[in-house]
Amino acid sequence: MLRQRRKTIVPIEIVKDLDVFLKVENDLKDPTTTGGTSKVRFLVESCLIPYIYYPFLVALITALVVLCLTFIRIITFENTSLKYDYSVDWDHESKLKINVDITIATQCMFIGSDVLDVTNKNPLEAGKLDEEDTWFELSNTQARAFKNLQIGNELLRKQYHAIHDVIWLDGFNMHNEQLPKREINPDRPKDACRFHGTLEVTKVAGNFHIIMGKSFSLFGAHAHLSPLGIEYAMNFSHRIDQFSFGHPSPGLVQPLNGDLKLSKTATQMYQYFIEVVPTVVDTRHANVETYQYAVTEKTREINHNQGSHGIPGIFIRYEISPMKITVKEVNRSYWFLLVEIGGIIGGVFATSGMIHSIINILYESFYKKGEKSHHEMNETIIIAKNNVGVTPESSAVLQ
């Protein structure tokens, strides 16, 4: 005799079993033991390039990278380089040329220029600069050109140590850059004086200066003669278009070119301290013995009541370095280019090998694992279908 047993009705179970969504019949389901692993496998198979073509793709990309880098290195290869030699300068007999182009904001009749060295020779032996009355204020075109000169020289002074090889090899030259001529002359008296020309002095320390009064020598003494009562009318505001030593040469940077100083008082004193270094330039752009220099500057106001003594004006004191620098351009062998290309090829192949290994690891981790899980799932389903039999629940009902 069969006895029907009813289960106790629990309200919470009724709520849990309540589902308004349609469900797929169990016979239509294909359960898996690995969850979404098969989906990963599907994505890998769909998104990744078939593995058989992957080595060819890596080889193609590697070859393209090698060709591009090799081409870039060939077109940027410099077959010359610079060699710097340092030696003692034993040449004390040659003359030192000083190239000057300075404009002072005072009329030429009130100021004068000359140069003195430690030997106290007659300054007239060094020559005389040309004096030209002009206007201190530049025209619009001249102002733009001078501003470009200032900006260019400022950048060169700041970045010289980083780009000096490029400057020498490319033959950069700023010596021929002069201010354009004035288009229209102002309708007012000329208020400035331009000193320009070349002085030849003995190769020893000296002092080039521009001060009030005209210079003259008398019985071995040097003095400046000026009218009385004009000292408070002086204005030593100045603009340096060029100041260099020796012959011009491509690659040289003149620190004082483009320098502009504006004075607020008539008793201003400007001092420049220059270290002149003999330089031999031997490049494809020039082969000449010349000079380069470094400069520091100082400005102060003359006030005898406060203990600041001196003479208002512009003083450029220079000293000659006992060391000589030789800048020589030497040819580089093309073997260096071959070695660099070999390094490029080896580096690219090593990098591509590492990338290839990483991709292989990822491929094995995702694709192979998904394939294995799918295979195990199929075997589990087959075994489950073959082992269908009487369950404990059915036997209880039959009793």
Automatic annotation (TrEMBL):
Highest rank taxon of the organism: Eukaryota
The keyword Secreted appears for this protein: no
Membrane spanning stretches: 51-72, 334-363
Family as reported in the entry's similarity comment: Belongs to the ERGIC family.
All residue ranges annotated as the Endoplasmic reticulum vesicle transporter C-terminal domain in the record: 187-355
Record localization: Endoplasmic reticulum-Golgi intermediate compartment membrane
Keyword Membrane: yes
Domain called Endoplasmic reticulum vesicle transporter N-terminal: residue spans: 57-122
GO cellular component, one term: endoplasmic reticulum-Golgi intermediate compartment membrane
Gene Ontology biological process terms, A to Z: endoplasmic reticulum to Golgi vesicle-mediated transport; retrograde vesicle-mediated transport, Golgi to endoplasmic reticulum
Keyword annotations of the record: Membrane, Transmembrane, Transmembrane helix
Membrane topology: Multi-pass membrane protein
Protein name in the entry: Endoplasmic reticulum-Golgi intermediate compartment protein 2
Primary site of residence: endoplasmic reticulum
